[in-house]
Write a structure and sequence with these properties.
Layout (H helix, E strand, L loop, with lengths): L9 H18 L4 H8 L3 H8 L8 H9 L2
Length: about 70
């Protein structure tokens, strides 16, 4: 993330988090489908979050995704 988080928009922060989660998932050797099965989220939700195209992720979904690790 950029040094000054307060200068970033919420969408930028969410996109950065998605990228970091994607990198971590790959390092763990997991597919999006495997994460979806463990979290109850759809592959579509995981994919769009990780690729930064879906910035409307709910807090509930984010927590489900985060707790998988």
């Amino acid at each position: 993330m950029k040094d000054d988080i307060y200068a970033q928009s919420n969408s930028d922060i969410i996109r950065e988090l998605g990228t970091r989660f994607k990198d971590y998932r790959k390092r763990m050797g997991l597919t999006q489908k495997e994460v979806a099965a463990h979290t109850g989220l759809s592959v579509f939700t995981i994919s769009t979050f990780e690729n930064g195209t879906f910035t409307g992720l709910t807090l509930s979904s984010f927590l489900k995704y985060s707790r998988h690790w």
